[in-house]
Amino acid sequence: MSKNRILCYTGVTAILAAWITIFLSWKLNPWFNVFEDAYSDLGGPAAYHREVYNYGLILTGLLVFLWGAYIAIVSRGRFGVIGGSYMALAGVFLALIGVYPSGTRPHTFVSTWFFIQADLALIAIGMELRGFLAGRLIVALSVLAFPLALLVEATLGWPSTAILETYGIVIIDAGVLLATSIICRETQNSRPSS
Question: Mean pLDDT across the stretch 64-75?
Answer without folding.
Answer: 96
